[in-house]
Amino acid sequence: MGCASPVPSPTDTPLANLAFKLDVRIDPKNAAEFILNPTPLGEDGYPQGMVVTIEVLPQEGWRVDDWAGPVFDVAGNVAKITMGSSHTVVASMKLTTPPPATKTGTSTEGSASSFNKGIELFEAENWSMAIDQFTLALQVNPQLKYAHYFRGNAYDQLKQYQRAVQDYDKEIELYPNDATSYVVRAAAYYNLGQYALSDADEAMACSLDSDWC
C-alpha cells in the first residue's frame, strides 16, 4: 500500500512566491530623495533573491554619511540589497556646506565657520563644544537654518531636554513646515514626561510628511 503525500494547506505559499517590502528612510528626511531600481511591484514589493539598487539624491549641501541595513556594493550615494526578507535601510546624511544665510546685514562667513565647526564637533560627539559653536553662529545670524536644530540635538544628547525643546521651538518658528523638527521635539517632550505634547508633535509631523506616520 503506497504512502499518500500530504495535501498542502490552502494557506501555504511557496517561499519563491512571497513578496518582501523594502523601506528606505533618509535621516534627516528633508536632506535627500531616493530612487529604487527596479521599482517595487506595486504594493507587493520584491520577490525573494532580487537585487535592488538604492540611489540617494541629496539636496544641495548634503551627502550620504552612512548606511544602516544589510546593503552591499556601497559606492557613495548608491548601495544594493538582496531581498531575502523585508528590510529597512537608513541613509544617514551629513551637511557638506552651511545652509544659506537668511538674514541680511550679517557676516555670513563668520556664521558659516562656526556652524561648520559645530557640525564637526557634533559628529565627534563633543556635545558641549558643539553647542558653543552653534551659539556663536546664531549670535551672528539668529535665523541660520539648522543651527537651532543641531544645537537642540546636542542638548538632547546631554539629556538637557528642556533646552532642546527651546531650540526646537525656535527652529519650528523659523521653518514651520519641516516635519523633522516636530519629530525631534516630540522625542524631547516624551523624555520630559509631557506625553500629550509629544503626541501632538507626532501628529503634526505626520500631517506634514506621511513618512513619519
Average pLDDT: 83
CATH superfamily of the largest domain: Tetratricopeptide repeat domain
Strand coverage percent: 15-25%
**Integer tally of domains:** 2
What is the C-alpha radius of gyration, as a whole number of Å? 22 Å
Q: What is the overall number of helices?
A: 6
- What is the H/E order? EEEEEEEEEHHHHHH
The count of strands amounts to 9
Task: Report the CATH architecture of the largest domain.
Answer: Alpha Horseshoe
Structure keywords:
38% helix; alpha+beta; 213 residues; globular; disordered N terminus; single chain; 9 strands; Serine Threonine Protein Phosphatase 5, Tetratricopeptide repeat; three-stranded mixed β-sheet
Kindly describe this structure.
A 4-stranded antiparallel sheet has the order 3-5-8-7, with no helix packed on it. Strands 2-9-6 form a 3-stranded mixed sheet, with no helix packed on it. It is globular and about 55 Å long. The protein has helices spanning 108-123, 127-140, 147-157, 161-174, 179-191, 195-208; strands at residues 19-20, 22-27, 32-37, 46-47, 51-58, 62-68, 72-75, 78-82, 87-95. The chain is built from 6 helices and 9 strands. Residues 1-5, 7-16 and 101-106 have low confidence and may be disordered. The protein has 2 domains: 20-95; 108-212, Tetratricopeptide repeat domain (Serine Threonine Protein Phosphatase 5, Tetratricopeptide repeat). The chain starts with 18 loop residues before the first strand and ends in a 5-residue tail after the last helix. A hairpin with a 2-residue loop joins strand 7 (72-75) and strand 8 (78-82). With 213 residues, the protein is of the alpha+beta class. 38% of the residues lie in helices and 23% in strands.
